[in-house]
Amino acid sequence: MMRILMSALIPAVLALSVGCGDKSDAVQTTPPAQGGQAAAAPAPAAAAPAPAPARLTVAEHAATMKTIAQSVQAANKALKGADTASATTSVQTLATSFATVETFYTQRMKPDAVKLAQTARSGAQDALAALKAGDAMKAQTSLATAQATCAQCHKMYREGDGKTTPYAFNAASGITPP
Question: Is residue 127 in a domain?
Fold first, then answer.
């Protein structure tokens, strides 16, 4: 009788162990590691590229030019009065504004103007570094370099005197308001 019971019990246990083997609710997404090595974590999804900045308008360019003019005047006045804190604020605004001008001309594929904007921005950044180092004389020199770059670009791209005729892009620039 024991023999009959054991012969029935062994096949039942085998059937249950084969039928119920590794039935977990978790879904396995990676194959198990081979050779006792840990499975590598899946690579993170590649970040989407940053969207391109919105196309700057001619009106935004004109507003940036006004900001530059005001900042140059304020920086020069502050430097003459030995007010490096005010000069620093104005020169920081200049560096940011020249970066905006660079973007404007990059969007319009004007490499000569991009180069001039980069040079002007670099002059503003040099002036800023000089101010932070306490060298007001070098800051004035760097600011003058940035201003000279402005004159070169204006000669190439601008018409009007701002008094009797408003500033505008000249016909040769190929830039027209939208």
Answer: yes
